[in-house]
Amino acid sequence: MFNKIVLFFRNEEGSESLINYGKKLQEKYKLRVEGLYVKDVNKYDIIPAGVEGMIMDTSSNYIIKEWEEIEVKTSQAIKEKFLKEFGPAKFSIVEGLTVESAIKKLNSADILITTKKEIIDSEIKALLRVHEKPIILIPEKGDFGLDNVVFADDLEEKSNKSIFSFLNIFSDVVRLDILYIKEEDDDLELKEYFNISKKGYKEVRLGVKDSIEFINEKDMLIMGNLKHFFSFEKIVGDLGAKLLENSKIPVFIG
User: Fold this and answer.
1) How far, in Å, are 23, 33, 165, 221 from residue 1 at the CA level?
2) Which domains does the chain have, with CATH numbers?
3) What is the pLDDT of residues 203-243, one digit of tens each?
């Protein structure tokens, strides 16, 4: 089981989806929920308005001020939505580097949950390279369940770590689907563990296209960590990258 999750808000567009998901987890597992918004200092890394020996460019000052005003409004709007649902829960608005701040917050929690777009952005890529605790990525729009779980098993160490992280946290899950893309794959030791722990499973063997359609009918996808450089994963046609980008459901990565 788990005790605390962090909802990591990166924009207002995905805030309602993130809040709704956090609320479902809180109601089901009676856990503590905290919110996080990071004002990334890199957003304001612009050539200074005035440097000795150079012509002054006052436009950059106006741009920075405008960005700051927008960010204050965005962070406060998200905070209000969060506190409306979670009452006296803690919501942190911090200045710093986005990924470093998120990882620091994750140090005191069981899971970090944030949103993803169909095209994985640089912040998510960076998170996938450095996180040491589980994260859940959810689409920016949608209302997601918690019951029907599928594990994309490629027989690799990273996917094995994810499934055991998931089972340790969501110990109430008693049945899930094991998805194999390659016909010859068969995780005998994992199935033996399921039998010992009395957890039910169903084996599913599908090609890539059918796999994507199959997982999008479920509530959550468990997959291995993509710690290698994400562009390289895409170039070599890595299945994990395809599943992550095309998933319309929450993705658990241990």
Assistant:
1) 17, 14, 10, 18
2) 1-141 (3.40.50.620), 145-254 (3.40.50.620)
3) 999 988 899 999 999 999 999 876 554 444 444 446 777 88
